Amino acid sequence: MPRMQDSGKKRVYMRKRVCRFCQDATIRIDYKDPKLLKHFVTERGKIMPRRMTGTCANHQRKLREEIKKARHIALLPFTTASR
Prior knowledge:
By secondary structure, this protein is an all-alpha fold. It contains 4 helices and no strands. The N and C termini lie far apart (53 Å).
């Protein structure tokens, strides 16, 4: 395999994000806490992926369910107003 030439760009090393729910067991994921859930939803209303938030798979699944519950009872919006 031929090696690629260095194009002069520096590599950017990102530190691995750590699941905040695994780190701090006192934080509970609950649909009645929209303030916490808003950190895991984009400004357009989409649920952020694990690679952006750093949550583990188990907590991401729990977050997804709680965000959907909060949307269903109108604690979180499904989308933002377009205009």
